[in-house]
């Protein structure tokens, strides 16, 4: 179909991608072997069978388990370069990657090991694949504010390798206010703030992310439609939403893709972008996310073009770089 080849060939930006969520089962097995780690799965099919989620937490349990095979700098490089190769095939020109340092430092892996491996892959992606990228350090919201602050301090020697800070993991019961101080400190350093809000959590978490964390984008944010005043604010201030369609269906935020509210979000004149979140776990990379919403919601060429352009507009690229890519 013409719209399918249009989607495949469209230059894209990706703004909501957890690099640990790109760990494919094949690489998980290879790294487990290399690092002599015993996996609780006997085969690739057993791994794939375990990827049946009922909500965000049921996914996170498997996601934190999967990342335990990442030990050496080389492992983080292998993980990220595999993503960049995949991104290149999807016509991605720019990406802003999340990483979860606490998922590694809590297991005794030095911060330096994590960021050095990722950085090496970023350099290679720029040189060899023509993909620009930035790193967004995410704080795990189920851990304490003190742990987040300690993580930021540990990261500051690598300030120049970081684009921003984010907030992810279990949303319910962990409102943005818990991280007000660490975001304040990060903003003082010039790090650009974003946060997951309104995926499973209520609209009040989106308000808090805006007012207390002063975020420049909302990750997910799909529950904003429950609050008319919030929608008006997001539209007026042009706050981008990084929406992840396949993720939302896999984690049962919506029962089916046909029930996804992306089209309503567009109708409310919100700056909606399409992203893959954790593609190795949710069954598709960026192009697949575009194809899935297009099919289920019957999006036309204009809407698809709008979504892809929004990805570049909502990015943290400079105005000149945006102009060159748009
Ligand atoms: N939500 C919250 N935390 C996460 C996600 C997500 O979609 N992916 C990885 N960590
Ligand atoms: Zn996410």
What does this protein look like?
The model has no long low-confidence stretch (mean pLDDT 98). This protein has 326 residues and is of the alpha/beta class. It has an eight-stranded parallel β-sheet. The chain is built from 17 helices and eight strands. The protein has a single domain (2-315), classed as Alpha-Beta Barrel (TIM Barrel), CATH 3.20.20. Hypoxanthine (HPA) binds next to α4. The record marks 220 as: Important for catalytic activity. Zn(2+) binds at residues 16, 18, 196, 277. The active site is at residue 199. Belongs to the metallo-dependent hydrolases superfamily. Adenosine and AMP deaminases family. Adenine deaminase type 2 subfamily.
SSE topology sketch:
Layout: H1 2-9, E1 12-18, H2 25-34, H3 44-50, H4 56-66, H5 73-89, E2 92-99, H6 102-105, H7 111-129, E3 132-140, H8 145-155, E4 164-168, H9 180-188, E5 192-197, H10 203-211, E6 217-220, H11 228-236, E7 241-243, H12 245-250, H13 262-267, E8 272-274, H14 279-282, H15 286-297, H16 301-313, H17 319-325
Parallel strand pairs: 1-2, 2-3, 3-4, 4-5, 5-6, 6-7, 7-8
The structure holds hypoxanthine and zinc ion.
Zinc ion is lined by residues 16, 18, 168, 196, 219, 277.
